[in-house]
Every structure is written in C-alpha cells, then in structure tokens.
Amino acid sequence: MLRHILPIARYTLLEALRNRLLWLALMLVAAGLAFTQFLQQVTITESVQIQAALLAALLRIGAAFILAAYVVTSMVREFNDKVMELILSRPLRRSSYFLGKLAGYAAVALALALISGLPLLLFAPAARVALWSLSLACELLLVTAFALFCVFSLTQVMSALAAVTCFYLLSRSISALQIMAAHPLTDALSAGQKVVNFVIDAIAFVLPGMDRMTQTGWLIYAAPTAAEFAQLLAQTAVYALLLCGAALFDLQRKNF
Amino acid sequence: MRDERPLRHVSAPVLALLAAGLALQLGLHAALPEPQAKAPDLLPPPAISLLRLASLGEPIALAKILMLRLQSFDYQSGTQVPYKDLDYAVVEAWLARILELDAGGQYPLLAASRLYAEIPNEAKQRSMLEFVYQEYLRDPNRRWPWLAHAVFLAKHRLKDMKLALRYAAALHEYTTSKDIPPWALTMEAFIREDLNELDTERVMIGGLIASGRITDPSELKFLDGRLREIEARLGKKRENAKP
Hints:
Chain A is an all-alpha fold. Helices cover about 80% and strands about 0% of the residues of chain A.
C-alpha cells in the first residue's frame, strides 16, 4: 500500500512547488513583516508584543486560507481533467489514492507552518515559536483533511471553499458562541433560546476546538502547559481520523 | 440526484474508521471542560485605533460583538452576586471603547447602569455610576435614561442624596430634546424636596412650568398642585420662624 501512497504524495508535493505555493507563502511573510515595521512606527509601548501578536494572527489565517484554496482548486482540477479517473483506473485502492493526496498536502501544510513560524523568531523565544508552529501544522492538517472531504462531497470550487471557510471560522469561534449563548441577561431561558443553545452545543460537539490551538498568547505571555498541548495533539489525531473516515466514505461511494 | 454507489461498496474498515472517529470526537469533546469566561481572563482592551483596524470597516458590528463578549464574563445566572470578581476599571475601559466604536449604541450604558452598577459593592457601584454620568455628558439627549436610573440607584441604594442631586441636576441642565419625559426633568426638584431645599424646589418647578417644556395638562396640574403645597409649607415655616 505504501508503494502507492508515497508516489502520489510526492507528486502532490511537486505540484505545490511548481505552482509556486511556497513563493506565495514567502510573500505573505514579507507582507506581514512590512506590516510589523509599520506597527513599530506607530506603537508607543509593548511594540514587540503587538508586532508578534498581529504578525502571528495574520500568518495563521493567511496560511489556512492559502492551503484551503490550494487543496480545493488542485483537487477540482484533477476531477475536471479526469486525472483522478486515470489514476483510479490503475490497480490502486481508492484509500491509497486518498492517503497519498492527504500525505502530500500534509507535507505542504507542514512547510507552510514552518515558513510561518520563522519570522516570529524575531519577536518571541524559539521554544514558544516551535510550539506555535507545531500547533499551526496540526490546525493546517485539519483544514487540509476537511478541504479534501469537501471536494469529494461537493466537487465544486465555490461550494467547497465556502464550506471550508465556514468550518474554519466556526471552529475558531464556537467556544465564544457557546459562552455568549449560555449567559443571557435574563435568568429564565425561553424555549427558543433553549433550542438555539442546544443547536450550538450540538455543533460544538462535532467541531474541533481550534480556538485552543495556535494561540497568540503562547508567543507573548506564556507557553502552553504539557497537558494543554497533549490535548491539542489528541484533538488533531481524533479529528483527522474522523475526517479521513468521512472522506473515504464519500470517495468509496463515488461513481466515476 | 448524486451519482453514488450503494452503501455496500463502502469497505468495513472505512465504516469502522468513520464510527471510531465520530465516537472519539464525541468522547473527547464530552471529556473537555465547558468553555467559561472567567473574570481574570478579561484583559484590558486594545487601543481604539487597533480596534478600528480589526473591525475591517465595520466598527458597529465589532462593537456589538464585543459587548456580547464582555457581558458573558463572570455572570453567574441566578446568583445574587454577579460580576463580583470583575476588575471594574477594565470593564469600564471596555465599555468606553465599545461606545467609541458605536457612539449611537445604548447597550453599554444599559449594561453599566442596570447590570454592573447593581451589585452589592458600594465602591464598584459608585465607580460605574460615575462612568454613566461621564458618558451621559457626551450625548445627554440620547443617554438620559441611564443617568435617570443612576439617580434612582444613588438615592435608594447608596442613600447618597448629594450624589443623586448631582445626577438629577445634570439631567435637568444638559438635556434639550422635547422627547424627554417630564418625570426625568423634575427629578432634581423632588430630590431637593427630600433634602428640604423647598425654596430651590419652588423656583425649579416654577421655572419648569414657565419654560414650556412640560405640555401634558395632567402633568402641569400635578406640578401646579405641588407648587402650591410647597408655598404653603414655606409659609408655615416662615410663620413658625417668627419670634
């Protein structure tokens, strides 16, 4: 199985390099650094903290957007050019194809996380930046797996990108939504509020807690505890497993 | 209709993987503590310029979200002592930032006067009432209801008549809109009566009637009756004072 997975992963990575994806990531870093220089000019105090916080936030969301757009457009192109059908016409399992693509995109995600972490070394200790980058790699892995799942299910660029964007934003804000919903100004909850709270809680159950990942506070205040980081790794592993199952389910039911 | 193969084409390991992934996700989520906003998590707000930048041209929307977020801190629904652990200087800073982003919004002042100022902690109450007063001065015609509530709190909760009088006087002095109800304008007069400042009260009620700001006949009749009552009390007081 591995002899099928590795070449697919390799060609996926090669495609990313030839698409100048890494150049785009470097441009994002350059733009972020230019922005921090601007911030340095206008801040009165805590300038390093402000630079680190805003650069980290920009790189985090930028890397997620670049990766999601790349995975979706690349996979849809493979669909439209019948490349996927060509590959699957070979004596190859669909799961091997999926895992090969996932491995290739995961390598791209790792490279993006490393590139995003490098400029932060100018503003934060190396150990904290390493944890932040590792967490970003986990986050990007989940974005990749979800984008793959959406492409297999929706097969359209716009709908898949919209779904990934909603998933990402909701995963990062669901805890805040839960807190807001749980603390109304009146003590007595109406039936409508109870239904809304139930729906929000149910959504939270099937989303990864991305608000606990890749926190800017790790760079400027304190590193995460071992327990917090272990929880983050467990969340990544569990959710990646779930997304792999869902994507493979869809892929195996697909008729070409 | 999607072109799909039947479910039997999905291999058992994939179904097992999907079921295991879902079960683990639900289990992991259930094992995690519920998200909760705790008082120490409330950090001071960033500068208004940064908030404007972060709003991406939607300062009002950001203000509304920030207000909902602020309100979720340390509110223990059903308990008698909500907000007790909050740092009120930080809360006031957030409320002020939200008002800067959305000057037309009333929510921050409602929260300040009706939520944060109604806790059993006199120092925090006074601090929040002062915040309401300062913000009222920036836009009296729109923000008067919150200062009117502050008058009530100062008078009945804090039992500080001087403070109540200061706020009530500001209500009378700075509002100019015709939409403001007479009861808000007459608050100062009644507090002066409580303080036994009958002369001032008489002048105030007379001035209010003469100003034309009160047009409701019943209200005018009530104030007129009140004026006569004060004059009678003042007359009796003067007679008693004669040797």
